[in-house]
Amino acid sequence: MLTSRTFEGRVLPRQDDDPEDQGLAFDVTTLLTRRKMLGVLGLGAGSAALAACAPTSTPATTTSSSAAAATTPATSVDTQNLTEMPTETNGPYPGDGTNGPDVLDMSGIARKDLTTSLDTGNSVDGVPFTQTITVVDMAGGNAPFAGAAVYIWHCDAQGRYSMYSDGVTGESWLRGVQVADANGQVSFDTIVPGCYEGRWPHIHFEVFSSINDITDATTNVLTSQIAIPEDVCQAVYADARYASSVTPFSHITLDSDNIFSDSIDLQMDSVTDQGDGYAGTIVVGVDTTTEQQMSMGGGPGGMGGGGPQGGPGAPPS
User: Fold this and answer.
1) What secondary structure, in 3-state letters, does 41-105 show?
2) Superfamily name with CATH number, domain 59-286
3) For the chain, which residues make up each domain, given as ranges?
4) Mean pLDDT of the chain, nearest integer
């Protein structure tokens, strides 16, 4: 009789692969299980201890330990007047398996630092940016959506998307997943997005009820986008690394953007200058009991967010 291979008492879902190659859900379960055990033992969840349970085959996988990061200070949320975030297209370059490449099944994608690629270890350059998202469970009495998994992705300083744009199809930078803490918060270390023709600078994201759902993008409970404020873009695009973003940004306004033109109030990031970079915060209301609330810009599926690859709004080659 064949005996199933196990790791820390759990059967490996991919019997022929090593423990570090079991995929996102297995990675995060391992991290959270170890954090829980450390808490039972009274050892805390220090980054050194968590790092020990992360795969170590590439530099990028070390950062996956941040999926189980310590609880962040709560952001004040007006739960009395909360409105559900409108649904937007995931665009032509989601990398979630709905349009070709699927980064969500890659080991190490659960991470805070998005500036490196999982396989190559190559890094991306730009002005540092920390994005914090507070997810609120409207169906649960507007409580913090603890345990929700959030996947974000965006273009680089030159307007390119990893996994899709010419020259960077083998990269996976500026894509990552975090699990919301007790305050419903996730935080990512990334760069300020660049700009390409036809779109206002933005960050894409998908929210899932739990990490167990994230390898099937169709199970997400919200797909939407975050807009970067104009003054931040103007300041950042003066940096030589963003030279190719200057002209596209001069051609676009929030009123002419096909996603944000109908309404921007709930999707505009609140950004502060940190001196050596920027920090953005936004509150995202999610109602799991309703259909996703479609914006006039278009719903999930790749159309309406800049068009199909090669069409209007596509990032430069």
Assistant:
1) HCCCCCHHHHHCCCCCCCHHHHHHHHHHCCCCCCCCCCHHHCCECCECCCCCCCCECCCCCEHHH
2) Aromatic compound dioxygenase (2.60.130.10)
3) 59-286
4) 81
